[in-house]
Amino acid sequence: MKGVLIDKGKKHGTFLTGNGEFVKGKHKNRDIGEEFVIEKSMIDMKKAALVMVLVIALVGGYIPYNSMTSAYGYVEIDINPSVELGYNENMKVIKINALNDEGEDIIANIDLKLKGMQVDDAVEAIIAYAESQEYSTDDVVLTYTHSDEDDIDEAVEGILCGIDDGDGTVTCVEVEKEKYKEFRKQSEEEGENIPPAVYVLKEKIADLQIELDDDEKIEELTEGYDLENCKVSDLAHIKNAIKKEIQEEKKAEKENNQNQNSVGVENQEQEQEENGKGKENAPGQIKEKNDDDGDDGSIESSDDDSGDESEGENEDSSEGNGPGNSQGNNGNKGSNKGTGN
């Protein structure tokens, strides 16, 4: 007999069989959600659970699970069976509701065991059981609520969005808790067994269409779908497609801005480089540049020319004056040569 592992301890686990029975056996280190042959010598957990409920009822302490304290948050699982789980602040399942006829078939068989499980384990068990009943799990949509407790909400988001559906896809949709309850009430009033996720996704699609602001592209992305009568998985496809288009447009715009900024920087650097070259070649700057470069040859040449001019002036002065002044000029000449050295 085969069964889906939905809970496990150190050595033994609880399995859900194809006919909806719960049995216990060795899990052989398999993962929750796996289906495999169960060893014999099992205990029928469904019968044991019914006996326990009967005992509690006879004692007088039985209270229906769904009448307990209100749920902290909700997770809606849409496969095509649609099931809603209510969980407490410890992320334990305390409520289970069917949202359509197929959902009724699911919880009729696994309701008792899911209560008290961690919400992510319960979600995986529902997906695994639906698959064992030959429902398609290629597109699973999980709609979860959030409130003011950021830590708990982040934990729920992390474990739900980390659920792996094998070859299928799992789409996570977040919605404010009070908004979700409004949509659920609307569904109950209309009496058409419409899962609240339908209203949630339609609202998100409308917001994304406004953000995209491209009627032609929207028509292309929604072609072949009837938005008024779409099932949850189709609405999730549309939402994801529009969101992806918006992300790609933003990415292209960001890359374009980066390229423009890069070209602007290159032009600025080129302009600065050209301005720098112009300053180097400007009149009156050559000598300063040579001084900076330490061109000793040009400096020595300048000093020699100055010395020659001084010497020539002294000689001319010596020729034009009398013998008395000649010695004085010769003295000056020697002095000038000494300074040059």
Q: In DSSP terms, counting alpha (H) and pi (I) runs of 4 or more, how many helices? A: 11
Rg, rounded, reads: 44 Å
Major beta sheet summary: 5 strands, mixed
End-to-end CA span: 114 Å
- N-to-C SSE string, H for helix and E for strand: EEEEHEEEHHEHEHHHHHHH
| Beta strand % | 15-25%
Structural class: alpha+beta
Which term fits the overall shape? elongated
Helicity, in percent?
55-70%
Q: Overall mean pLDDT score?
A: 73
Number of strand segments: 9
- The oligomeric status of these chains comes to single chain
Strand order within the widest beta sheet: 7-6-5-8-9
**Which spans have pLDDT < 50 for at least 5 consecutive residues?**
40-68, 286-341
Transmembrane segments: 48-65
Membrane topology: Single-pass membrane protein
Keywords: Cell membrane, Membrane, Transmembrane, Transmembrane helix
Main location: membrane
